[in-house]
Amino acid sequence: MAHNITTSIRLPPTLREQLEKATHHLHRGKNWIITKALEEYLEKLHQNVLAEEAHRQSLLASQVENKDEDWEQNTDTRGWI
Predict the structure, then answer these.
(1) Fewer CB in a 10 Å sphere around the end CB: N or C, the chain?
(2) What is the pTM of this model?
């Protein structure tokens, strides 16, 4: 069973005001809005990391002299999780 934790953050006044307006507009709590925003941000960050790795692998693959070789033998997996 997952347990939630409480954390605190400091927000600039303008961001705090925007958050307050969003809570009223969406009829949702601050926690829900912040959680959703953080989930979206982290997902985009993850997608960017994957895209950067795909680009790096593409550049490495384009430098292989013998394109008929097994790609797995020439794949650079450094930095993979």
Answers:
(1) N
(2) 0.60
CA angle 40, 44, 47 (to 5 degrees): 140
Q: What pLDDT is recorded for position 54?
A: 81
DSSP SS3 for 9: coil
Distance CA 10, CA 48 (A): 27
Q: Per-residue pLDDT tens for 4-38?
A: 889 999 999 999 999 999 999 999 999 999 999 99
Residue pointed to by tokens 């809570």: 23
Q: Tokens standing for 24?
A: 């009223």
- Which ranges constitute the DSSP H helices of 1-81? 13-26, 30-62, 71-74
Place of tokens 């070789």: 69
